[in-house]
Amino acid sequence: MKLNLKALTITAAIVWAGAVLLVGMANAIWPGYGKAFLMMLASIYPGFAAAGTFGDAVVGSLYALFDAAVVTFIFGWLYNLFAGAASS
Length: 88
What we know:
The protein is mainly alpha-helical. It has one domain. 78% of the residues lie in helices and 0% in strands. The protein is built from three helices and no strands. The protein has helices at residues 5-29, 35-44, 54-87. α1 (5-29) packs antiparallel against α3 (54-87).
């Protein structure tokens, strides 16, 4: 069974970006919430400072959207490549 790359990529990108945005907004409302998670993301995504502001949450979620789209596309492509090879 092969994966639909477009559906998988869009779904994963939206879910990951939504999670980052949700934690970022929660941190803006309740300082300290998810701080370790946001600091981990700040060490990966350049330009994301985990400052607890709305703008920073948007920047982090845009990075997450792009990151998840690329990683999930590669994962799905590799899965389809090996799934096709196994069925031959």
